Amino acid sequence: MIRSELIAKISEENPHLFQRDVEKIVNTIFEEIVSALARGDRVELRGFGAFSVKRRDARTGRNPRTGEAVDVDEKHVPFFKTGKLLRDRLNGEES
């Protein structure tokens, strides 16, 4: 599902809301998640999962085309851990 499909689905299920308002709500939620991660905070959505930032150390990598050694800088990457409810539903163990 992409963002526009999510907005359309929420608008469809909530006919009392204008689609432009639903779009603002969805965009605000995503912006807040991104802002929190940029600050180094953890974002937890109960039953769904938790977003956090993991640090990857600097290392020496290899250029796959030439095999030449390449220095890779330290970086921070987003990480998502599923919640128990989501994991159970994906595995057919509905609660």
From TrEMBL:
PROSITE patterns: HISTONE_LIKE (PS00045). One of its GO terms (molecular function) is DNA binding. The keyword Secreted does not apply. GO terms for biological process: DNA recombination; regulation of DNA-templated transcription; regulation of translation. CDD domains: IHF_B (cd13836). Keywords: DNA recombination, DNA-binding, Transcription, Transcription regulation, Translation regulation. GO terms for cellular component: chromosome; cytosol. Transmembrane segments: none annotated. Pfam families: Bac_DNA_binding (PF00216). This protein is one of the two subunits of integration host factor, a specific DNA-binding protein that functions in genetic recombination as well as in transcriptional and translational control. Belongs to the bacterial histone-like protein family. Heterodimer of an alpha and a beta chain. This is Integration host factor subunit beta. It comes from Pseudothioclava arenosa. The lineage of its organism: Bacteria, Pseudomonadati, Pseudomonadota, Alphaproteobacteria, Rhodobacterales.
